[in-house]
Amino acid sequence: MIAKTQFSKNSAGMFFPRSGSLDLSGLWEFAFLPEGTPRTFDPAKLRFDLQVSVPGCFDLTPEYYLRRGTGIYRCQVEAGGEMELISEGLGLRGEFYWDGKQIATVDAPFSRRVIRFDAGKPGVHELLVAVNNEFDDSPSSLFRRDYDFYAHGGIYRKITMAPAAAVHADELKIIPVDPEKGTVRIAVKFSGAVSGLTQAEIRFDGQGESAILPLKDGIGDQVFQVPSPHPWSPDDPFLHTAEIQAGGETFSIEFGLRKVECRNGKLYLNGAPLKLIGCNRHDAHPEFGYAVPLDIRLRDLNRLKKAGMNCIRGCHYPQSEELLSLCDRLGILVWEESLGWGNNEAALTDPEFQARQIRETRNMAVKSVNHPSVIIWGFLNEADTAQEFARPLVKSLAETLHEVDPTRPVTFGSNRLTKDICLDLADVISFNTYPGWYGLEQDQFCDQENIRKHLAELAEFASRPEFREKPLLISEIGAEAIPGIYGGQRWSEEYQAELLETVVRHVLESDRYSGTFLWQFCDTRTYISNASQVRAGGFNFKGLLDRYRNPKISWRRISDLLKNNQNKEDQV
Q1: Residue 117 Cα distances to 98, 120, 167, 227, angstroms
Q2: DSSP letter string over 450-484?
């Protein structure tokens, strides 16, 4: 029997104008087409003999475990008229069908899509989503088989529907100007019934009279004063709200008053120097893939904050609205980046890849711009930025992010280190480096002196005249530790703990470094082998926690170090 979903009063998504929306999370019927099967199909001939959950990854179900192919999800929806469907993220690509007619395609994993369509007469209709996780090895592919994290297939994040508004909010940006004074720049782009629409009304925190934002062709941009301003910070993550009314529709947005700056070679938050100590975190779980339940996300972030860390790097794709909202409320700082990993000349010079990267990087920034927790934008992790052919795309991506949001610094994780020729295009220098792990010399025991020397050399390079005004981060660093292996030798928990403790101590004591994102929060699924590495059991064991979030020695050591450091600062 096909699951039937009706409208409820659940909370709407970020740009939904109405409180009454349809959350399609739950049980859907499911059919599977094995890898190599043509993706043209007749829904009437499919056998929907399995029920799966949405959100969920079909290649983690027992029936199709780690299989490649096309998963076809089906449910019935009671709706009618002009509708707006929002897909928060799926992978690797998807097609949406309404009563057998294709209404949209999604060609980018993890990306949010807004789909507006005519649902027909009011009544029960069939919604079908076909999701394919086969690898695309063309240069234009956004997720290639040699990426060092697993390419799951499924509907990663929730799908919601609502009656389409007459006025659509394509962009709603609230950019803090002065947190203490409470001044913000509000920039909007409306579409739909905007003919004759000359203004929008702005109201903050449900108080006072509305302010007027003039509009021309649905576009407006002006500075406003927030009454009773309360700055946002990690220690006091206070959120304001703004209601924007236009054309009879009301859009509600949460935002924070805070300011990020790069000056004198350091990062500043609300005028105070900022030292980032945290982890790279894949939004993934061995049992749920990229459809991580809210409870696990909340536990992860609370655990990180309790350990004394203040940030995560969302590697290596746009993060979910749910996760960023949690970071807003918990006061955890975020580096968010668009999808990319190790891209080479074939991709970086391919016009379609370039266009997709620019489009999806812009989409990410528009989606996340109002989250105060996001303080850094990133892209193209470990691309071949030591070559001249990389510069045009790096330059375009940096310009794209600055156009959407000129207030946040832009960077990319570089493993080309001192050979990188694109560092001048970034606001922050960020190095992915693995001393003591990768390289010709692989010592049995941790060489702390060599690690400190390597970090000092990178700091010296980043202090050259052309770079010294830019903040310096270690965006990745770590070592693998197989859980339960002890003794201090390579691959043991003690080896990893000693290496990471050496790194964190050095960064805390260094005046040149603005922070480090340790690799990584927990062990994650990848591949037994790909173009770059061989991974025991198909997992990357560089986590400070194991795959089920049990702490390794390194987690406890880093936590103790950060707490002791905080105690010393409190006593000064």
Answers
A1: 9, 9, 14, 39
A2: HHHHHHHHHHHHTTSTTTTTS-EEEEE----B-TT
The DSSP secondary structure of 340-377, one letter per residue, reads --S--HHHHT-HHHHHHHHHHHHHHHHHHTT-TTEEEE
3-state SS record for 203-224 = EECCCCCCEEEECECCEEEEEE
H-run or E-run covering 392? helix 391-404
Does pLDDT of 121 surpass 90? yes
Average the pLDDT over 341-367 and give the result: 98
Of 211, 203, 86, 71, nearest to 131 by C-alpha is: 71
Angle at which helices 553-571 and 493-509 pack, to 10 degrees? 20
Looking only at Cα atoms, what is the longest distance across the chain? Answer: 74
**Beta bridge pairs of residue 124:** 78
pLDDT at 572: 67
Q: How far is CA 458 from CA 267, 273, 278, 381, 417, in A?
A: 18, 21, 20, 18, 8
Rg (CA), the chain: 24
Taking each helix axis from N to C end, the angle separating 493-509 and 448-461, rounded to the nearest 10 degrees, works out to: 40
Q: How would you classify the pairing of strands 272-274 and 22-23?
A: unpaired
**Mean pLDDT of the 91-104 span:** 96
Give CA angle at 31 (30, 36), nearest 5°: 140
Local structure of residue 237 (DSSP, 8 states): -
Whole-number Å distance between alpha carbons of 264 and 281: 29
Q: What confidence tier does 344 reach under pLDDT thresholds 50, 70, 90?
A: very high
Can you tell me which residue has the tokens 């980043």? Answer: 462
Strands 513-518, 167-178: parallel, antiparallel or unpaired by DSSP?
unpaired
More confident site: 46 or 550: 550
Beta bridge partners of 50: 30
The residue written with tokens 């060489």 in the block is: 447
- Pairwise CA distance, residues 557 & 528, whole Å: 29
Cα→Cα distances 2→75, 127, 350, 489, Å: 6, 11, 43, 56
501: left (phi over 0), alpha (psi -120 to 50) or beta: alpha
Which residue type is seen at 268? Y
Out of 169-173, 236-240, 533-537, which region has the weakest mean confidence (pLDDT)?
A: 533-537
Q: Which two structure tokens, joined as six digits, stand for 348?
A: 């970086």
Burial class (CB in 10 A: 0-12, 13-18, 19+), 464: exposed
- Percentage of the chain lying above the pLDDT 90 cut: 89
Whether 110 and 88 have beta carbons less than 8 Å apart is answered as no
Q: Residue 42: CB partners within 8 Å, gap ≥ 6?
A: none
Dihedrals phi, psi of 395, to nearest 5 degrees: -65, -45
C-beta neighbour count of 511 within 10 angstroms: 9
Residue at 454: amino acid letter: H
